[in-house]
Write a structure and sequence with these properties.
It contains 13 helices and 9 strands. It has 356 residues and is α/β, with parallel strands linked by helices. The protein has a single domain (46-348), classed as Aldolase class I (TIM Barrel, Alpha-Beta Barrel). Strands 1, 2, 3, 4, 5, 6, 7, 8 and 9 form a 9-stranded parallel beta sheet that branches. The structure holds S-adenosylmethionine, 5-amino-D-isoleucine and iron/sulfur cluster.
Length: 356
């Protein structure tokens, strides 16, 4: 199959068959570069050289769940922390002042924070919103339908809840004891409440090529404004510890395919899989924002790479911006990011009307 023909028609906004998508996802050699280049060109057509920056704050690492891939699963005996509301607000302001465009408030499904209908996180969002306009992402895990409006009212802009896979059997094996449909519906409920949604797939958790196509199709069909692919990183003390590290090319190809299938979607280049070394390959695969930027020396963890490149400052915003500029790209301003979020939320609110 001619890869260039497929990328050309996708670049023009035409569709592709599953067979063609599979050809892209399994491309080798020079064909890969053809795909990445097409993805970059489409990205630059929509976003120009602007790149959005997202600061990551894993503010509670306690969790009631037992996802088999996750270091922070409840059965793993590890040191955990929970930041106070004041600390989270202070760190969020620091992140905003440092020129980062988005703050991602992430927690394990911490019983203390779930208590009282997530009031702890609602308070944090309210307090941040009182002092800054910065777009706020919340990543609270799977929450009740009725709780979404509390986050929207407090000033949150986007909810991140990754399905990981749309294969129900694999989901049940990885997200033990969790409800597939309840998690899937999180994205719909976020959008119905006027916020945006981020979905995500994991690569290397036992999925087949067909599963990857299915995940990409499903995530885009939900109409999420942000979609991600993350390569599984084996974690000490978990059931998948011995599964071995896989290369990241399948993640990069999945990102490029998502870019080609939906030109204006936000796709993160995460620093959480390969640290700062992973930034450029992901931007080269068509990413439009950088996530998992973490300030050093604040005792904050990453997820898949809980400490890699944090305290030496390699995941700090100063270093990220310098590398970005070396690539001929530039960080977005907070005002640009705000405008983008407002425009997308406006579109989502009309989409909501068409649901009902
Ligand atoms: N607890 C919330 C949840 O599960 O939705 C939010 C935080 S959770 C740690 C965020 C995401 O990190 C997961 O959805 C998963 O995609 C990713 N993740 C967790 N462990 C990982 C690993 N070992 N390798 C790669 N990604 C991982
Ligand atoms: C990241 N470590 O962006 C973060 C995390 C949660 N919303 C995101 C997985 O890679
Ligand atoms: Fe908990 Fe999220 Fe880790 Fe699952 S992925 S164990 S819900 S922190």
């Amino acid at each position: 199959m001619d890869i260039a023909e497929i990328t050309e028609k996708l670049s023009k906004g035409e569709s592709a068959s599953d067979v063609e998508i599979k050809a892209l996802l399994t491309a080798e050699g020079e064909d890969r570069e053809t795909i990445f280049q097409a993805a970059r060109e489409v990205r630059d057509r929509v976003f120009g050289k602007k790149t959005y920056l997202s600061g990551f704050m894993y503010f509670s690492t306690y969790c009631r769940n037992d996802c088999t891939f996750c270091y922070f699963r409840k059965s793993n005996s590890i040191d955990r922390y929970r930041k106070s509301t004041d600390e989270v607000v202070k760190l969020s302001n620091m992140i905003a002042d440092a020129g980062i465009n988005i703050v991602d408030l992430t927690m394990g499904e911490d019983p203390m924070l779930i208590n009282n209908d997530y009031q702890g996180l609602v308070d944090i969002v309210n307090a941040i919103r009182e002092t800054t306009d910065i777009p706020i992402m919340v990543s609270p895990g799977a929450i009740p339908q009725s709780t979404f409006s509390r986050f929207a009212d407090a000033g949150a802009d986007i909810v991140a809840v990754y399905q990981e896979t749309y294969n129900r059997k694999l989901f049940a094996e990885r997200r033990l004891g969790q409800d597939f449909d309840f998690r899937r519906n999180q994205k719909v409920w976020a959008m119905e409440s006027g916020m945006l949604a981020e979905d995500g797939m994991m690569v290397g958790i036992g999925e087949t090529l067909d599963d990857r196509v299915d995940a990409i199709r499903n995530m885009l069909a939900l109409n999420c404004d942000q979609v991600r692919a993350m390569t599984f990183v084996p974690q000490e003390g978990t059931p998948m510890e011995g599964d071995g590290t896989v290369g990241t090319v399948n993640e990069l190809l999945a990102m490029a395919v998502m870019r080609l299938l939906k030109h204006d979607v936000m796709i993160p280049a995460t620093l959480d899989v390969e640290g700062i070394a992973g930034m450029q390959p992901r931007l080269d695969a068509g990413a439009s924002l950088i996530t998992s930027i973490i300030p050093p020396h604040e005792e904050l963890a990453g997820v898949a790479q809980s400490c890699m490149d944090i305290d030496d400052g390699s995941r700090s915003v100063t270093h990220v911006i310098q590398m970005l500029e070396d690539m001929g790209r530039r960080p977005a301003t907070m005002a640009e990011c705000r405008r983008m979020f407002d425009a997308r939320r406006e579109r989502v609110s009309h989409m909501k009307l068409s649901y009902t």
